[in-house]
Structures are given as structure tokens and as C-alpha cells.
Amino acid sequence: MSETQKYVSLMRLTQKGLAELTDSAKRRKISEDRVAALGGRSIAFYALLGTYDFMQIFEMPSNEAMMQYVLTARRDGHVEPLILPAFDTEIYGQILNAVG
User: Fold this and answer.
1) What is the DSSP string of 20-83?
2) Distance, CA of 57 to CA of 23 (rounded, Å)
């Protein structure tokens, strides 16, 4: 299995995030730096139409590192994230083989 874990974050802007929308690019850089400081990396970031405003894909070394990142981001108050663990096709195949 992989050393790092992958996560998808679906984010909705809060009222604070909307009020400070012009600083969005700066906050994204802060987010990527925080992820790197925790031993992870941001793989992709997209702005979305629909229910969620942004999607970010991460690699993190552990659930604990991801939790630390999420709590820090939530404390900042710009987005409300929904974090989903993600499994690539290789890991998913290993899981299927274990299930039988």
C-alpha cells in the first residue's frame, strides 16, 4: 500500500471567504504551504460551479496530519470543507483482492 494517503476536499466559501474573495489566491498559497509543512502536497486545485466552490486533492502522510490541516483551515474561517479519503485504482484493486 502507498506511504501517503490521498484526500479530496470539497469546499464552500463562508461569508468571511466571500467578503475576502480577492485574497483567494494568497490563501491558496498559504494552504499549500501548510500542507507541505505537514509532510503532504497539494496535487490539484479547481474552482467549481454548483454546490461547492472549490475542490483540492491532497497527499498527506496520515489522517492525523490531515486533521491538523483541516482544523487549522476551519479556524481561519474562509471555507467549510468536506474531506473525503480517496483511493487510486491500484489501492482499490488491492482492497478488492482482499475482499475476495
Assistant:
1) TGGGHHHHHHHHHHHHHHTT-EEEEEEE-SSS-SEEEEEEES-HHHHHHHHHHHHHHTSEEEEE
2) 21
Give dist(CA 69, CA 75) in Å, integer: 10
Q: Could you tell me the pTM of the whole model?
A: 0.86
pLDDT tens for 30-42 read 999 999 999 999 9
Regarding the domain delimited by 5-99, which CATH topology (the fold level of the hierarchy) does it fall under?
Answer: Alpha-Beta Plaits (3.30.70)
Q: Distance between CA 56 and CA 47 in Å, rounded?
A: 9
Count of beta carbons in the 10 Å neighbourhood of residue 50: 6
Q: Where are the domains of the chain?
A: 5-99
Residue 1 is given by DSSP the state -
